[in-house]
Amino acid sequence: MAVTANPKQNQTKAAVEEEAPLYGDVLESVLSKLHLIHLLSACHVSKSWNRAVSSTLRFSNRVKPWLVVHSQTTRFPYVVSARAYDPASHVWVDVDRSLHHPPVKSISTLRSSHSTLLYMLSPSKFAFSLDALHLEWSHANTPPLVWRTDPIVAVVGHRVVVAGGACDYEDDPLAVEMYDVKVGTWDTCESMPAIFKDSSASTWLSVAADERRMYVTEKCSAVTYSFDPESKKWFGPYDLCPNPTVFSSVIGFVNGRLVLAGVVGEAEDVKGVKLWEVEVSDDESLELKEMIGDMPETMVEKLKGESDCKPSFSMSYMGGLVCFHNGSDPSDLILCELENGGCRWTSIRNDAVNDGTRMQRMVVTYANLGLPELQKAVQVGALKIL
Amino acid sequence: MSTSTDNNASITQESGPSAAVQDIQKKIVVRTADGEVFNLKEEVAMEIDIIKTFFQEDSISYETVMPLPNVEGWEMVKVIEYCTKHVELKHKVDGYKERKAFQALFVQNLSTKSLLALTNTANYLEVKYLLDFLCQAVSEQIKNKDVDYVRELFGVENDFNDEEYEQVKAEAPWAHENLNNDLH
Predict the structure, then answer these.
(1) What torsion do the CA atoms of A242, A246, A252, A253 make, to the nearest 10 degrees?
(2) Can you give the pTM of this predicted structure?
(3) Model ipTM?
């Protein structure tokens, strides 16, 4: 006769349950139904519950990077509000930064060149933030030497690179400077390649960075250069244009690989969005490889939205997740998850868009929020669990 | 061995498929810890993996009464109720609303203690979809509750020593406040 082993066989079932009604596999199954944010209480109940929480989080699809949508009012004092989305549990949460560490006051527009960085730049100040929910802001000791209105900014290792976007009266519109966070000083580097002369502002360029290099792509031509902060030099050009039907390209890192997203058609009539892999060779040269993703038509329509303005697509990314949004109409966010060589596309309504924020500046970043970061965020009152 | 009255008649297999057989449903008999005996329709019994394994894989005759020493009578009633509904809805094209309504009623009057007992029973009997549903119901009771409430509800003892507990509390003081229990 098949009987499942009962750990306390000399006691009646009722007695066993009096002692520990919820344990082992069943406890883990129960905990696996809870959103990450609700597990914070569970892990303090007892040692065995603590272990059960750790165990249930070991499955990689429970913890995914969160999307954070920041909205900034266009008038003084340029208040920034944010809402975060957990793709694992499909929950939107308010991020409240007003209780402590208020963001840099009215310094200027909030910007992000790549998914983990938020920065603000004015003639006299430069502030940036790299933590998951952007609760902590750092200020550069001095602003960059060159006055810039709309440069590209990227974090490469322990340096922040600021390039181009210089004001008209500056000598060199393609000037590049680098802020070493460890030392607190600025360094001047090789200027941007001349090809970017008329397009050195962040509006025309797409930026991606990893620990070693910064990659800059001119959106309309897909011509790409890489910048090495060690040698302070530029390398390229690399022509990454997939084919003549692509009129705009943006780059990013997905699962550690450089990826190019090309928008097909034309500005007034976007037909599609496709993803290509970019190979980085040992000698650091770049080459476009095969297509790895194709956005479904219905989602392309959602991405285009209903604005009369020309679309302005941005791609945010972390790990294997990518998020596309249209600056001209960010009501829908198109998400793509790259796994096992395939793409899984979903679309979500942008919960941060409402009548109050519709006309505000919107920036999207990705946050790696594990249980410790979540705990800290809730502790400081930045996230509400209800 | 068995105390059920219609045992013999229902176990004999009639030859040939067809409507005649439908009248005599194959039954499987189980006895719970408190001595209660249940006759299950074969199709419902086969939803319960531990029963399925016992009779099918070990080729035990259906005449045998399977003992279930870890299951109380009232729990068996609930499990049969759920599995019967599940089998019924399998054949329906759009049973979503009906399933949801049924599930709501199913757990409505269960105390937490009973809910937990039933969850453990579903685990023991190996009825995957019932276990899944019950775990979800239990998790609803944990959501948004502070640590003390959860401990009391589930009868869990705090086994962190004073030092460990202070450290744990310092990391998340909000989890130890007395949240209004009605706040969902």
Answers:
(1) -40
(2) 0.72
(3) 0.76
